[in-house]
Amino acid sequence: MANGTTKDVTATLEEDYRTRTPRSQELFERARKTMPGGAKGAYFHQPYPLTMARGEGCYLYDVEGQRYVDFANHHTAQVLGHNHPAVIDAIQQQMVKGIALGAPVGIEAELCEEMCRRVASLDRLRFCNSGTEATLHAIRLARGVSGRAKIAKFEGGYHGSHDVVEISSAPSLDKVGSETAPNPVPSAGGMSPHAAEEVIVLPYNDEASVERLVTQHRDGLACIIFDTKAGIVPQRKEFVQFVGEIARKNDLLFILDEIVGFRVGTGGLQEYYGVTPDLTAYGKVVGGGFPVGAFGGRADIMDLLDGTRGSTGFFQSGTFSAHPITMAAGLATLKQLTPDAFAHLNGLGDRLTAGLNELFAGENIAAKAVNTGSVFSIHFTSEDLVNYRSLARTDKEMAHRVFLALLAEGYFLSHGLSMNAISLPTETSHVDGLIEAVGRAIKESQ
Ligand SMILES: Cc1ncc(COP(=O)(O)O)c(C=O)c1O
Known about the structure:
binds pyridoxal-5'-phosphate, Aspartate Aminotransferase, domain 2, 14 strands, alpha/beta
């Protein structure tokens, strides 16, 4: 879609951005001398990312002192916003007792109990340091229990950065092959050449193809791992339930990725969709802003990690797994996530996407706003969003321009405008302000 005119608009928006943020540019140029890319990959956008000085409630302040309403909330993790007093207090209390003591401190069991109490399918749970580790260990358990090596995952499903799950996590459309039997495409260089052989790639939203592919490959498969793409692609509850049933019917473990979880209700995405996974992977919110992962589920599977009566042949550990500060922050965070808190967050998510979709319809803009609870995305497309391929065809250049125009308006979203999130201190006025700002940003970006 980018033509001479839209290229000029992008250049103007980027030039305005540079003028407003010289200190961020300076810091980026310094960082890139020793850090390839200047920042972690997910932070980068053209021409360079903002450097933030601090956060408070639902606001971020960049190094120039400019304020933004934060609608990204650290890849959805900061559900309470920034510096929530309950989290700060819990961290401080633990810090004075000791940061890392080389032994259990008790809070990890409290957080574990709290999660198992909230989520019906969780009999047992273990902590690790990232969502990546959580899906790695869940898949390892599934392979160990079944004695089979292959996994089934969805095209465009994201589960972190270990080899098998990076097959077809964001494949280029010229490599994907048939829509009903997608090719397994490695998403990063340096992966094991065998990774692609170990993955059966399933298309979202296509029951017939999922059933056919799973049935065809069932003898080699250990599990189906499912990222619902909550707040990114509209997901039919019946489809999520169908995937769970297909796993059960074919004697495969059903692993639900709830790493963008605890964002729609007390019992998580599985309660919302009405499914009972065998294992579930967690991250983000349950660390209260610190690095975290967790995986859990059926006692008979998870107890394979209980080596207290001798080796079971299974193992999971990690120097900083169940780190005391993370556990304290995570527990304090979950305690704030009451039914009232979810009602507030979900209400804002629904209000935002309803307002945006009304704006798009009224102004004849080819765009769609999607939310699952307080996670939301804005996609520039006239197509129905049914699977990875329709998501991949959305107008990313337009999203970039609107992102920059929104920064100028004082709103910070994820730079692709996908997988944004609302935090608890956010109010109706912020959401209504964003809707109006999106209207103006689109006008500026056309
Ligand atoms: C659905 C999903 N699964 C897994 C992950 C990986 O988690 P982490 O970045 O903590 O490794 C992410 C991260 O964004 C995610 O969104």
